């Protein structure tokens, strides 16, 4: 059994506050999204996994199924609006939507071309917008639901590079506040978790041998782990957070500086 499987198994008996609910998690095949999918499954949710890599998606489905949790995988390209809406349609009736898929490339403005700009906005901002528009009205009609989007500390902590990434994540924060007002009276709660640096496959690949720099930007003295963000998402998805709506929850270890440019 893998280390991640051990983590799932250890949490199964801790309670199932999400039993009977269905969650759609975008970007579920790696990083924070994978940890979120595992944690929601531990807590009893049926999980609809989204990603681009079918082999990785099916592997995660089997991993969750071996522990008794129902899961299925849907491949979709979130840079394509029609494919994003197809994902919502195939996911069906969901009680929890976690917008975890993200795109980040940290470059100066003059070196960020139009295609990179469009990709950031499509995945980080437009896809959550389309999915909320497609799925939240049905949640509202049923009188309950939770939407959690993964933001970023880059939305509030400027750096010499990465303006388009920060802007796309700031857009999600604004949308969260509007959505909370639009849907809050119906029983649907909409919040954003805004992590600081988290050690994932993506950040490790981006920083390479310099990945230790991620441990130097907060009072905690280390970068976050995907599982730590997943715990917050699970809390926001469940009944214990029933009075939290329209919030931007910072999970940055007490950020004290920005990444060097």
The CATH class name reads: Alpha Beta
Compute the separation of the termini in Å.
Answer: 40 Å
Strand order of the largest sheet: 3-2-1-4-5-6-7
Order of helices and strands: HEHEHEHEHEHEHHE
Work out the oligomeric state of the chains in this entry: single chain
Work out the number of β strands.
Answer: 7
Q: Work out the strand percent.
A: 5-15%
CATH superfamily: NAD(P)-binding Rossmann-like Domain
**Could you name the CATH topology?**
Rossmann fold
* Number of domain units: 1
- Return residue spans where pLDDT drops below 50 for at least 5 consecutive residues: 1-14
The gross shape turns out to be globular
Largest sheet: 7 strands, parallel
Helical content stands at 40-55%
Radius of gyration of CA atoms, rounded to a whole number = 17 Å
Structural class: alpha/beta
Give the name of the CATH architecture.
3-Layer(aba) Sandwich
Protein name: NAD(P)-dependent dehydrogenase (Short-subunit alcohol dehydrogenase family)
GO molecular function, one term: oxidoreductase activity
Keywords: Oxidoreductase
Family: Belongs to the short-chain dehydrogenases/reductases (SDR) family.
